[in-house]
Amino acid sequence: MEIIKSTAEMIQWSANSRAEAKTIALVPTMGFFHEGHLSLMRRAAKVADRVVVSLFVNPTQFAPGEDLGSYPRSFELDAARAQGVGVTALFCPDPDEMYPPGFRTTVAVAEITKKLCGKSRPHHFSGVTTVVNKLFNLVQPNFAIFGEKDFQQLAVIRRMVADLHMPVEIMGHAIVREKDGLAMSSRNSYLNEEERRQALCLWRSLQEARQHVLAGERGCAKIEKIVHDVINNHGHCHIDYIEIIDKDTLESSARIDSDVILALAVRIGKTRLIDNGRLLHGEDNA
Ligand code: AMP
């Protein structure tokens, strides 16, 4: 596995791959790899000849006061894990390499970035779309794989790629969970023992919602109230949002059908966790 740190080297590597008629799949990440990340990388290795994983804690998607400084990092372990699942190149630039002095350009998607996570993190998605754009230009992948855990990010990127005619196929990958149901996340490492127990409220409320839908309930307001109660009964959990929305447009829904997902953001102590899933047809929104 090659370790690439400079943008010039990344561009050259990509040009060489195309000259050799090799297809490229890109998996953008912020590192501190868990099984969720690794399953995206395995999928990438199945769809393309070469896999590039970017490991970059992107400063522009964090607001002042968020966890940029404390975001967990573990480069040596990450590199070993990536190599173990068949990654061809690990692209890990320094922030100055990605944002040299004088950098002034932002790529932003309107409307769907203002809902859900965008309400409490108003500048987050423009940071994401800008850096993903840069990664697409540097790597020029045939495929890019994103987790459905960050379903709004996936919807925003699909919108950007369609709107800007970007020649890359976006693939969503199902949520990977711990044995007890908690969606894997690098931020789970912030949780102490008691918070880890409380964090299960996201999965439990999703399961409770599914039980009621299975029993015939189709009203979104009623299901949202049930989810609200499950989370509040878990103690010390602060609800950021609970919404039942169309999985593509992210519009609120009044009735439950196979196109909607339940989306949650909950703060457990200082840690903000997100989760989502379909309520009809299947477990996660795969
Ligand atoms: P991150 O490093 O948290 O920015 O995540 C990098 C990629 O991995 C994103 O596309 C995430 O949606 C995806 N991802 C993170 N956690 C999971 C998970 N538990 N299951 C599936 N994909 C995930």
Short structural summary:
The protein contains ten helices and nine strands. The protein is α/β, with parallel strands linked by helices and 286 residues long.
Question: Care to describe what's here?
Answer:
Helix content is 37%, strand content 19%. The strands form 2 sheets. Strands 1-4-3-2-5-6 form a 6-stranded parallel beta sheet, with helices on both faces. Strands 7-8-9 form a 3-stranded antiparallel beta sheet, covered by helices on one side. Helix 6 packs across helix 7 and helix 9 packs antiparallel against helix 10. It starts with a strand and ends in an 8-residue tail after the last strand. It binds adenosine monophosphate (AMP). Adenosine monophosphate binds next to helix 2 and strand 5.
What attributes characterize this protein structure?
286 residues, alpha/beta, Rossmann fold, Pantoate--beta-alanine Ligase, Chain: A,domain 2, 2 domains, six-stranded parallel beta sheet, 10 helices, 9 strands, binds adenosine monophosphate
Please compute the radius of gyration using only Cα atoms. Answer: 19 Å
**Domain count:** 2
Spatial order of the strands forming the largest sheet: 1-4-3-2-5-6
What CATH architecture of the largest domain do you see?
3-Layer(aba) Sandwich
End-to-end C-alpha gap: 30 Å
Q: Which structural class do you get from the secondary structure elements?
A: alpha/beta
Number of strands: 9
Strand content: 15-25%
Biggest sheet features = 6 strands, parallel
Please name the CATH topology of the largest domain: Rossmann fold
Given this structure, which CATH class of the largest domain is correct? Answer: Alpha Beta
